[in-house]
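Record 1 of the preview.
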Amino acid sequence: MASDAVEEYGLELARFSEETTKKLADFLPPAANIYNPVDVLGDAHPDRYERALGLVINDPNVDMVVALTAPAPLIPFGVLSRIVAAAKEKAEKPLTVSFMAGELGEEAEETLREAGIPSYFDPARAVRALAVLHRYAEVRKKEWKEPRRLEVDRSKVQELLARAKRQGRTQLGVEAMDILTAYGIPTAPGGLARTPKEAGEIAKAIGDEVVLKLVSPELTHKTEVGGVMLGLRPEEVETAAEEMRTRIASRFPRAQIDGLLVQRQLPPGQELIVGAVRDPQFGPLVMFGFGGIFVEILREVAFAVAPLSPDEARELVESIRGYGLLRGARGRKGVAVDAVVEAVERISHLVYDFPEIVELDVNPLLAYPEGVVAVDLRITLSWE
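->
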């Protein structure tokens, strides 16, 4: 899991020096893995873990370390935390930990906190934290401008979030596309219909083929439950909407249905993902990557700390593998990179301005030679 995350977040697994691997082999059991990632085995005593970590973190080819461990009977988390903190202090290299346990204990948590070591249950999040640190260090080497002040409609977003809070909602979907519109991010033309008749009227106003999407806080995977219909002509929409509501009601009689979203059917474009997550250590992080068929091919997303300046947003977009595809390659027409960069910048300001947004996912953001359009949205809120 952690090794996959290293690749996904644009990092590389270090290749240890011959001296390091020899020293690891000298004292680790034959069943242990002396290559990256090192496995000291579950029967390790504190001295074995400490010695292995010291060799790894001081290897000249290693720039940063993730210390991973599941609950080990011979190494209490308090002891383990002291070992990790001491290794970080001596080596002065970035280090995160993933102690895969629900409760570390007060002693362990305090030790890590005082040492400035981010701790995560999920190994992938520990790797992501290092990717953010690496990116932040790279950004600090450059002279960036401060984030600019954007012309946005904050009051509109406040109104929409206040309504969600009154309703006790922590999940918003495509029905909240007005949040993106308020921050200047283009969205697919359309509207939310409460009845099949309204859906038909919206479709006729669009005057072109449309997509019909179920809006329900309880049925978030719309495609799997039959809550998406594509390529509908305006005159077909009212009947299709009635059929969808009837079908969903029969399968999920207790599900809350807020309506049906009618959107213009957009032509194929380059699918991108722009998202954000609120990290307990770093605050709001913006994520960017390819969507569609390129998700599995490229397997990479990049993160940056919000809010972003225009230069930082461009650097984030240009940092991912396959960036050349956006410029155009092998007969593929390029997309409006400036529009992609601006969308990333605006989303970074949105999540920075509203701390109640703990996760946001625009997937896909369709990119074309003439601009970008957000097609789908998912937001997770926290009222704590």
